[in-house]
User: Which sequence fits this backbone?
């Protein structure tokens, strides 16, 4: 069936909604995009019969956490700076802080290998729906259970053996369709360039998810291969990937209402979710996580502000936490503002009427909505406990992670990991986790050790926390001491075996398990009920001739839209669709970390244009711009392409008003914030002087 545009409330979409499966760009979608301004045929975007020659072949996944694109014949890869943040943090030292100072590989030998980095290049997508159905029928005939893990493993191993490629099975629409995605993986990836944080994240948390912004959010990597061109682990004699069809870069710029297209790997959306699920998130789960994470961020921010050493140690952790917390906080607000639950309830009325109109449908789904209402009500307490456990026992401190890791057969805490912790901050985070756990968890759900602590200390959480912390070897580094030889290794393993089961912190973190709250019949039944709900919705829209696209699931997708300012109904209509360098200089504030520019950056911005190709001299270069492309997490770093398929920017953020869109698309409010490619080029040229990289690029003037 055609994969196309729909609004999940059941009425035609007013804006360019949709993250379309890249291999399902059909004639109807091609026509719609061309009506918007696209001048390319669909086969120029994705063509299974001409590998390497279409636009999508230059788009890669970065470990399915972000997106990048190949922009030179020597394997140069561009993505967002915030996608490279963890790598820059891991490579930084107090002596050489690449986050604060930036990184520029002036020569090829300066490019730094990034340990563990992997890039996936999509080679083919296979529809294996019938093959999966046959496997399921055979399993039922034999009385065997074919769970999703076994199904995925069996098919992926089969196709990896046949093709020599990495395989991932993707299910969409609750298992109505199955696609097998085949990837070429490259494991020698090296850092080439990244601007300092004051440019890449200018405005920090204050401007995050807001418009206008002025961020230079880009970084460059390079893919290396073995001398014969095949993928390989890092080796000194590896060479840059030879790639025949990199994206071309346009420096012409954009104007309002110009066509734009984004290709990338959006992670997860849940637009087929029910009102019951979203209501639980809005009223119970999101308020809980937002409150706990907000307190955690406050403690981290205070410690980082007071000590630059702590800032370096925790920059990556704080960055990840703050981005998610702010997003979910605004997601909760947007769900309320736009009446998402009420809209889904209206959709469910139409769904129930459609089910009741046919005897076969009534037999299959007649009681589904009543069943889901009952299940979610019954499971609410357990879902709350699971969330509280995750936020206090799992994510609250690094000590809890070390305790869990040390308890495994091969568990260990490396000295370099220990050195990246500040025990003063960890102690305050533990105090927060302990207090939150006891104040919010139902007493009957506590484990024996937790109840013992309450009997001994009552509600004196400071005394309770202090006693456990002072008695635990997890807090003094003994279990992370360097190992000189095999004898030392055996001694430490023995110490861990003898010490850990008695350790107060280990006992605190392991007195209950998350599975204790997940084994209720209601929680177990929710997964299957949600799957059947998705299938019912899909069948209704199919029956009514309403085209539809599946929820994002880290497979390659395409979205299209236009350049344009915020809609009148979103407010701030007077704000342009772009920002300029002079706005950065006006916002510069040396006393505010989020808005403080390095002096060399400030001078370069004041100096302005160079060479003239960047458009600065022609009335003001654009720094960031906004479109109405449909994106979500995972799209970070995605190429923004013009009507001719040329690179004009990188997607890096959504706007605050769009943050309910993971569960329900909001027309007119959904915006994609992008860094203009000309600002990237100016930074490489006028600020960094990276001539050798600029010479690689295919620039369309």
Assistant:
């Amino acid at each position: 069936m055609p994969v196309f545009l729909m609004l999940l409330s059941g009425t035609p979409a007013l804006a360019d909604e949709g993250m379309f499966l890249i291999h399902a760009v059909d004639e109807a979608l091609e026509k719609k995009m061309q009506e918007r301004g696209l001048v390319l045929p669909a086969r120029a975007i994705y063509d299974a019969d001409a590998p390497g020659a279409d636009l999508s072949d230059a788009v890669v996944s970065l470990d399915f956490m972000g997106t990048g694109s190949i922009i030179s014949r020597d394997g140069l890869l561009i993505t967002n700076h915030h996608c490279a943040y963890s790598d820059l943090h891991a490579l930084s030292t107090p002596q050489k802080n690449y986050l604060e100072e930036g990184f520029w590989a002036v020569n090829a030998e300066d490019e730094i290998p990034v340990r563990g980095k992997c890039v996936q290049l999509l080679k083919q997508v296979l529809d294996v729906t019938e093959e999966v159905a046959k496997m399921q029928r055979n399993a039922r005939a034999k009385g065997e259970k074919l769970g999703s893990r076994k199904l995925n493993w069996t098919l992926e191993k089969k196709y990896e053996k046949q093709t020599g490629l990495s395989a991932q099975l993707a299910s969409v629409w609750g298992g109505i369709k199955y696609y097998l995605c085949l990837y070429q993986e490259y494991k020698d990836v090296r850092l080439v360039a990244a601007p300092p944080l004051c440019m890449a994240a200018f405005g920090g948390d204050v401007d995050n998810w807001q418009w206008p912004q002025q961020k230079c959010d880009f970084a460059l990597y390079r893919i290396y291969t073995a001398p014969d061109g095949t993928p390989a682990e890092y080796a000194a004699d590896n060479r840059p990937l030879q790639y025949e069809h990199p994206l071309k870069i346009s420096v012409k710029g954009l104007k309002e209402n110009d066509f734009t297209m984004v290709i990338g790997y959006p992670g997860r959306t849940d637009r087929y979710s029910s009102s019951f699920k979203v209501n639980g998130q809005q009223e119970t789960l999101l308020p809980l996580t937002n409150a706990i994470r907000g307190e955690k961020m406050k403690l981290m921010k205070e410690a980082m502000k007071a000590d630059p050493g702590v800032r370096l140690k925790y920059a990556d952790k704080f960055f990840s936490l703050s981005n998610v917390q702010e997003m979910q906080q605004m997601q909760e607000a947007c769900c309320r503002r736009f009446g998402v639950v009420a809209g889904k309830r209206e959709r469910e009325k139409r769904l129930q009427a459609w089910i009741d109109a046919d005897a076969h449908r009534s037999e299959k789904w007649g009681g589904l909505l009543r069943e889901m209402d009952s299940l979610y009500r019954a499971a609410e307490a357990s879902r709350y406990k699971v969330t509280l456990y995750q936020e206090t026992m799992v994510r609250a401190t690094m000590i809890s992670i070390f305790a869990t890791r040390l308890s495994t057969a091969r568990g260990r805490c490396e000295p370099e990991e220990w050195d990246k912790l500040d025990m003063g901050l960890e102690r305050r985070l533990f105090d927060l986790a302990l207090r939150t756990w006891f104040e919010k968890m139902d007493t009957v759900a506590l484990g024996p050790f937790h109840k013992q602590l309450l009997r001994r200390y009552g509600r004196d959480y400071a005394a309770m926390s202090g006693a456990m912390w002072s008695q635990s070897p997890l807090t003094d580094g003994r279990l992370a001491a360097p190992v000189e030889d095999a004898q030392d290794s055996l001694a430490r393993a023995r110490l861990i075996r003898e010490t850990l089961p008695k350790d107060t912190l280990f006992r605190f973190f392991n007195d209950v398990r998350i599975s204790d709250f997940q084994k209720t019949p209601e929680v177990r039944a929710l997964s299957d009920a949600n799957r059947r709900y998705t299938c019912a919705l899909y069948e209704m829209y199919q029956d009514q001739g309403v085209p539809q696209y599946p929820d994002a699931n880290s497979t390659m997708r395409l979205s299209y839209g236009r350049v344009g300012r915020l809609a009148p109904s979103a407010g701030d209509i007077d704000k342009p669709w772009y920002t300029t360098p002079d706005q950065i200089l006006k916002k510069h504030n040396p006393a505010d970390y989020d808005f403080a520019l390095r002096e060399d950056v400030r001078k370069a911005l004041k100096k302005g244009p160079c060479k003239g190709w960047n458009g600065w001299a022609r009335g003001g270069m654009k720094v960031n711009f906004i479109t109405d492309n449909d994106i979500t997490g995972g799209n970070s770093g995605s190429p923004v392409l013009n009507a001719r398929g040329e690179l004009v920017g990188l997607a890096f953020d959504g706007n605050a008003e769009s943050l309910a869109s993971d569960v329900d698309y909001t027309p007119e409010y959904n915006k994609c914030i992008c860094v203009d490619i000309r600002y990237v080029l100016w930074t490489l040229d006028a600020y960094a002087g990276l001539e050798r990289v600029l010479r690689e690029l295919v620039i369309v003037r």
Residues 1-14 have pLDDT under 50 and may be disordered. The radius of gyration is 26 Å. The CA atoms of residues 465 and 665 lie 44 Å apart.
